[in-house]
Design a protein that fits this description.
It contains four helices and two strands; from the N terminus they run ββαααα. It is mostly helical.
């Protein structure tokens, strides 16, 4: 914002430095893209590696466990879903123009995708945890170890909720900026 003198009313008014605002939007967009790309690649890699390791270990066991096969399939399906979502996002990213408004809409789109992605990964903890605990029960694991694993998954849910809230706040800041720009433009028209 910069202060401008209104000669008609002899009062100061404020205007927007569009270049600085556009740079700020581009910075937020770049940060959001970086976080999203790293999150997607980590998610895909982690689920594929974990799914294959669980499958490989289970297949060579003397008595393979059904829940480990289910866990492996779930993780590989999760990796596939994230990969398809990533490809869709990358294709959809091309629809935004290179203007201040277009870059802001793109930054909001990326932030919205990151919110949905973190929500998916967060709630995916529940089926993975449930399958792991059922597998441990099937294998006859000590109840104390199972309780420790359950506590770990509960703490993971809370931590992922904290992370999810960060992404929601980032998206909200961009939406407020968009709202303020719309108000400013409608004020210029009147």
């Amino acid at each position: 914002m910069k202060k401008i003198w209104d000669a008609q009313n002899n009062e100061p008014i404020y205007g927007i430095n569009e270049a600085a605002l556009h740079n700020r939007i581009l910075s937020k967009q770049k940060q959001g893209l970086h976080i999203t790309n790293v999150s997607e690649i980590m998610g895909i890699t982690t689920y594929i590696v974990a799914g294959l390791v669980v499958f490989g270990v289970n297949i060579y066991k003397e008595k393979p466990e059904i829940f480990l096969y289910i866990l492996s399939a779930w993780m590989l399906a999760s990796a596939s879903y994230i990969l398809v979502s990533r490809l869709r996002r990358l294709i959809a990213d091309k629809r935004f123009d290179r203007s201040l408004r277009g870059d802001l809409n793109y930054a909001i789109s990326v932030a919205g995708y990151q919110v949905r992605f973190s929500k998916l990964v967060r709630w995916n903890i529940i089926p993975i945890g449930l399958i792991i605990i059922l597998g441990m029960l099937e294998a006859g694991t000590s109840i104390w170890i199972i309780a420790g694993i359950l506590i770990f998954f509960i703490l993971t849910m809370f931590a992922s909720g904290w992370e999810h809230d960060i992404y929601k706040r980032r998206k909200h800041v961009l939406e407020l900026l968009q709202e303020n720009l719309l108000k400013e433009e409608s004020g210029k028209e009147n």
